[in-house]
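Hello,

Our lab assistant flagged a job as stuck in the queue for most of the afternoon. It eventually completed. Since we weren't sure the result was trustworthy after the delay, we are filing this so someone can double-check. Below is the sequence as submitted and the structure that was eventually returned. Let us know if re-running is recommended.
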Amino acid sequence: MTTIAYIANQFPSPLEPYVIDEITELRRCGAQVICCSGKRVSPNDLSLAERAFWKETLFFQPLSDDELVRAVRHLAADRRRLWQLLRPLLWERGSSPIRRLRTLGHTVMGAALAEQLAPLAVEHIHAHHGYFASWMALTAARLLGIGFSFTLHGSDLLQRADLLSTKLRACQFCMTVSNFNRQHILHNYPSVPPDKIILQRLGVDRVLSWPTLAPAAEPNRRRFCLLSVGRLHRVKDYGFLIDACAGLRDQGLDFLCWIVGEGPERAALQCQIKTLGLQGHVYLIGQVPRSDLPGYYRYADLVVMTSRSEGIPVVLMEAMAHEKLVLAPALTGIPELVDHQNNGFLYQPGSLPDFVSAVSWIHDHHASLTGIQRAAAASIAASYNRQRNLRAFAEQFLARIPRSDGNHAYPVLQQIRLSV
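-- returned structure --
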């Protein structure tokens, strides 16, 4: 049985159900998977299924004093390997001094990860996203003398590509969710062999029947409803959406805009809504359980996205599977999902007039756009089926991991144990 450690910055997370999906699929294929999380997660906001994963997950932030001491000893035991890990922090371009300092801390966390995994005969470490957990995975893999891989989505490649050149050189393979991302990697990191970068799309389930409406929906059913789903974070650019809502109101459009999600930008967005006098139009709904999201999709007339950076958003896949009209910026991998005027609509990224004009046009014509709605659901069924894409993920993943004879020898760990 192949033993894999699977780590994310924060796991389990209601915002990243695909991580649990991938772990579950690897286990279904016979692999033993050890769940790890860079940050400690509270179980309070998790579903029952997520709590089951939480109970088995190894957490690494914050480290106890004892864990910290053991991790530092682990790093210091082999100066050659330590220099291999620290050299990119000094010389690789593109990282600020603060991020380099944080990466030093993440190196220590990676050593703590190696300490925890050493007795478990782990043969491979995979990190989801290219953020700090991927550096932990790289560090632990080098200390244990095993392979490492990671998955890239959007911002972790296009906005926060910290030490990405080193990660791409060190990994056995890298999975990414869009062809745009794959071409971006091959263009910007030309030394990376093309067969090392695997296009692996995410997916959603087919919608078989309409769920119950969201509880708050009925009183305002006559109003055109915009829906946006995502974390209240700067990269999602909800300030742009709220400005657009002011423009729509000034044009005389009678509408609702529901923003479903929670995050650090809530206070600023609430202030913007009040300043623009949009209290009767724009509502910050807050975090909604995934089981309740279908009701919001059903009620919405148009699902919009205003992000500055994305991979291929699951939110758009879900909306399209529900035969919803979608409007999103024509950036990164989104045009691979949304074919303009065929299964959805695109607007010029950052252009408020283009976005407002598109919403107004869709508002005026939405009753005649049922063909586009049906095409949206058909395109999801064809290319973004969750179960089919998960099977492809597991097959490619396990095929890339060398089979072990079961004898695990970790020279660095043996050296540490002899010295303490």
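-- support follow-up --
The delay was a queue issue, not a problem with the job. The result is valid. DSSP finds 18 helices and 13 strands in the chain. The first strand starts at residue 3 and ends at 10.
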